[in-house]
Design goal:
Blueprint (H helix, E strand, L loop, with lengths): L2 H50 L5 H5 L12 H32 L4 H13 L4 H15 L6 H25 L3 H9 L4 H29 L3 H5 L33 H9 L4 H35 L3
């Protein structure tokens, strides 16, 4: 081996060694950051679990808020949260998925479409209080919905709409182009290709984006406070079901409400230690609801992918 070849070999080994050192540094840094995040979450969750677990009981779920901490519950809060999330999902999911399909498959590639795509992406990072101010002006005052469950659900739907649109587009974009080409080669129309092939294969990714958006919405406070959610409410909205035909009532849409984050904020702002324990218990319930939603998304995604054949 000549001197030049030996020199080149030493330089290559030095470059490889530097790259391995860089990889090791990045690996250690990443693990350190991950451990800090995980340990912080474990510490906060453990503190909340220790304080809130003794307060969890059937009475806590079936009692209204009270000025006496030992008898206070979250009945109106979790019912309000459930109803608001139903409105949010009913408004955001069809509109967001439909918009994502249109932008990805049907919209012409021109300057207008590019402007829309840029704005949709940027809207995902807009502070939630802006959506609350928009909902206050549009839904509460202009459309006359008032400080109701409907206004809250539509406000949160606007909040998560960009997330659902972006997730839908990314899920459709991840499908191999051969799926489209094969469908078109067999004479399928655009809609047949989308409905029979693209949507089934991208359903798992779309569902993940929907659950992520709903998990963000369930913990939001700023838009709900902005439109006038009550911090203390000792009654439930009208039932969505009734005994006489047509057995379904929509009066609850216009009812006043409160949600779990508002109830927690109310209790945290009180100086008594017992109210702090109530807030920890409510936070524990909210975390469990969020984890349940994510677990459901993981299960449904697994089932969908298992049933598909590429």
């Amino acid at each position: 081996m000549s001197d030049s070849d030996a020199q080149n070999l030493r330089e290559i080994r030095a470059i490889i060694a530097r790259h391995k050192l860089g990889d090791l540094i990045f690996l250690v840094t990443g693990l350190l950051v991950l451990m800090i995040a995980v340990l912080t979450f474990i510490a906060l969750f453990s503190h909340m679990l220790i304080d809130g677990l003794p307060r969890l009981s059937w009475d806590f779920f079936t009692s209204f808020p009270s000025r006496r901490p030992e008898s206070a519950g979250i009945l109106s809060a979790w019912v309000g949260t459930t109803l608001v999330m139903i409105v949010t999902a009913a408004a955001a999911v069809p509109l967001g998925v439909g918009a994502g399909i249109y932008l990805e498959e049907y919209a012409p590639k021109n300057i207008l479409t590019e402007i829309i795509e840029i704005n949709v992406t940027n809207l995902a990072g807009v502070p939630s209080i802006i959506y609350g101010l928009l909902a206050l002006s549009l839904f509460v005052h202009q459309l006359g919905f008032g400080q109701s469950i409907l206004s809250a659900g539509l406000a949160l739907a606007l909040l998560i709409l960009p997330i659902v649109i972006v997730a839908t587009r990314e899920a459709i974009r991840a499908i191999p182009v051969t799926i489209r080409e094969g469908a078109y080669a067999l004479g399928a129309t655009k809609w047949q290709t989308v409905s029979d092939h693209l949507l089934p294969y991208s359903a798992a990714g779309i569902l993940t984006g929907i659950i992520i958006g709903l998990a963000r919405a369930i913990g939001e406070t700023a838009p709900i406070i902005t439109i006038g959610a009550l911090t203390f409410i000792a009654f439930l909205p009208p039932s969505p079901f009734k005994e006489e035909f047509p057995y379904i009532s929509f009066e609850w849409l216009m009812a006043p409400f409160t949600v779990m984050p508002i109830q927690m904020f109310n209790w945290v702002s009180r100086p008594e230690e017992a109210f702090q324990m109530n807030a920890a218990a409510a936070g524990l319930v909210l975390v469990i609801m969020t984890l349940t939603m994510n677990a459901l998304a993981i299960y449904l995604r697994y089932r969908m992918r298992k049933n598909l054949k590429w």
